[in-house]
Amino acid sequence: MKGNRTVVVASVIVLMMVSFFYYPKRIDSANLTVTKDTLQTSRLSFAGRVVAPTAAGSSHVWLNTSGAAGFYSVSTAGLKVGDALTIGVGSYTVSSIVDADEFTTTVVLASGDADVADVIYLKGKPQHVVTFTTASAIASGFFRILIPAATSNFNDAVPDSTGFDFNTAVDVSATNATGYTFATPVATVSGGTSCPSGWHCFEYHYVGTGGVGTAITLKIGNTSGTNTLIAPAPAAAHTQGTADTYTFKVQNFVNASDPTGTPTDQTQGKLGVIESVRVTATVDPTISFSIAGIASGASPCGTGTENQTDVTTVTGTNAPLAVPFGTLTLNTFRDAAHLLTLSTNAVSGYAVTAQENDQLGKDGGTTPLIIDTAGDNSLANETTSDTWDVAAAHPGFGYTLKSVNLATVPFTSTGANFNVRTFPSIADPDSPLVQTIMSSTGTSDAHTANVCYRVTVTATQAAGDYENQITYTATASF
Amino acid sequence: MKKFYLKNHSCHSELDSESRTPGFRVKPGMTIVFLIFLFVILANAGIHPVNAAGYGLSLYPPLLRVHIKPGKTITQVFKIDNLIGEEKIFIARLVPFTDADLFGNPILNLKSTAPWLSYFSLTNSSIKLGEPFTIKANSSEQLILSLTVPENAALKDLYVTLLVSTYSNTGVPNYQGTQVSATTGSNLLITIASEAYPPTLLRVENITPTSGWLFKFGSYYLADSISPVSFTAQVLNRGDFAAETKGIFKVAGQKAEPIYLEGVLPVNVLAKTKRVLQNNHGENFVFTPNLGHIGPFRATISIKTDNANAENSITIIFLPLKVSFGLFFASLFLIAIYQTTKSKKDTLDTS
């Protein structure tokens, strides 16, 4: 008997559970899931006011650090160089941020744009991309998005401190999905037909069967900022660095229903707007100079076998700070080269100069000398180039240059022609002190140039070891 | 490259013959690994490096501008980085200079000296001016430069470059060739004055349009109104102290309202020297007019220093020269066509 009672109770419980699931309670409205409003940029607009001593004819702007209704941008923290601003009624571009309440513009302020309390607006116009997943299969219905608007002046094309400004006209678009083929969406300003005050409304009507769990993407505005809502400026209680948050709604209505009524499905989300982060860093000025050797067999300054390097400056004693010509063959050129590299962030650029202590002297002495060459036509000197392609009867030592990357060099060789100059000599009172061989008038990142050396002697040259010293000096321009 | 491929082929043949020898069997996988290994070795051996880093030095700061009163001392740290993976010996020295080229590069005479060099000293314990010191591979060293100006020092500018050079005292027997010394310098522009902003005397000179459709009539320039015009200019410092060029280049119309503004690159002009003025990009000033810019315009460069202003300008008359020439030649062409057509018609009518 007791066993029968237990069976009856268990059966009743099972029946109750089955009936609960078999006849689930009808739910009138469901949440659209995974709802997001992704802003192209979450940057706040800027609404500030001019204060003295800002003056027409000057590009220096002082920002009022006291807030007033609608104007709560009281710090330049929301600005950055290059921002397009409206000051007064004129259009300006931020040139530099001076400090927390001062900035400069690229052009001077016009008369009428520099008066106390003249407005300073930066109009942020981010595109909204609203995405969500449908909860019900509503055939040929429509979606509606509600974006918060200010209660007044919500369509005057300037930033508001309590919501998005309609900015006169807004483009809206939608991406078709399975079961959802969209017609041209409609944007309605706050308080317009079937649009409640305090919200801008965007309706996306579609045809199709709809679907459950379908991912939908709806857009408001354009990435170019044309016909796009204006993002809010800082709210009255805005804390710098903390986002002002706004609530938006996404609704799904059945076909031909009144959008002011209750939607079948809806959900709401939050979006936040915050000042852009201005990243600043201090870069120390510096100048870097390096010399690297160049191997034999290379053609660093000209074409043809005659211009190929005969000796390496990569290896050997004191390499690469040596040009070991070695044993010279009479009436035959011997070539070598170095690669100079310079980087500086000095704004005025740099110059690399060269000079020699003397001509190549026997055993480092002052006589006899392998003279500085005069070139093929006896024209070459420290400041004038001459071709030097014939070794016989044209002995001497000289150099040519080639800019490898961005460096300005005073002369170069041409094809197979070796255009030569001589290094200024400290020992020669008639010689210029130094000669600039590489320069730039602006900041320079890894400017490079090849210096190519050439020497040849005739039979009249006294036997011995000849040597001199060349000094390259790199300095930043002041 | 050709030689390399021949070597590779030869090695491959030898391996094949050995792999067939009884008792010395090489698995195919091992052969491939060995061949790849050999390939890498030979490929690297075949490459001739074009260049290799041998000297690299970085110096901070590259420029030091100092205003100092007599009787005062300042100290500046210069940081030197040895950029290469090799220990190097350097030597630091101060070289005075008095002149510079138009682009702000000092004309250095390495042998020059001046009595006021005694105002400078290094306060490092182990590094002295004119004496070699070592910086380890990829390491840095600091030079602590102290400037003490005596009470009775002359009120004037001192220009000096701190040079850090490579140093070698190892002789190479039977050496034939050139030894290269690499030097990196930092320029020090020092003004000794009893006031914070000593008087400056700058004069803007030689504002000259250099490119574009230009014709000069007396002191006026005629320029085409749709062609960019490039301007060069110089500034002369007639004062006894270096001055910085902060200012603007502007082009203004008949109502003196600027229609074009460009910043002047702030640079230092040594006392009694000239300097080229350039825009913020280190280039000549360029104004691009449009068809609406017709008539006389003033191109002005204004320099402001802490206690003086300098300004100069030229007048350029913009005219639609290219358009006028185009219309003129088009008219000539049309007239020629008309005359030719008319002449043929007359001939036909006559015949």
Task: Present the secondary structure layout.
The complex is a heterodimer of chains A (478) and B (351).
Chain A: H1 2-22, E1 33-39, E2 46-49, E3 60-62, E4 84-87, E5 90-99, E6 102-105, E7 119-122, E8 128-133, E9 142-148, E10 172-175, E11 181-182, E12 186-188, E13 199-207, E14 215-220, E15 244-253, E16 265-273, E17 287-294, E18 322-324, E19 334-344, E20 350-356, E21 360-362, E22 369-370, E23 386-387, E24 396-405, E25 419-420, E26 435-440, E27 444-456, E28 466-476
Antiparallel strand pairs in A: 1-8, 2-7, 3-6, 4-5, 4-7, 5-6, 8-14, 9-13, 9-15, 10-14, 11-13, 12-13, 15-16, 17-19, 19-27, 20-26, 20-28, 21-22, 21-28, 23-25, 24-27
Chain B: H1 2-19, H2 28-46, E1 51-60, E2 63-68, E3 73-82, E4 88-96, E5 120-122, E6 132-135, E7 140-148, E8 157-166, E9 177-192, E10 202-211, E11 214-217, E12 220-224, E13 229-237, E14 243-244, E15 246-252, E16 258-264, E17 268-269, E18 274-277, E19 285-287, E20 295-304, E21 309-319, H3 321-350
Parallel strand pairs in B: 2-9, 12-21
Antiparallel strand pairs in B: 1-3, 3-7, 4-6, 4-8, 5-7, 8-9, 10-13, 11-12, 13-18, 13-19, 14-17, 15-16, 15-20, 20-21
Features:
A: mainly beta, Thrombin, subunit H, 3 domains, six-stranded antiparallel beta sheet, 1 helix, 28 strands, 4% helix, B: 351 residues, alpha+beta, six-stranded mixed beta sheet, five-stranded mixed beta sheet, 3 helices
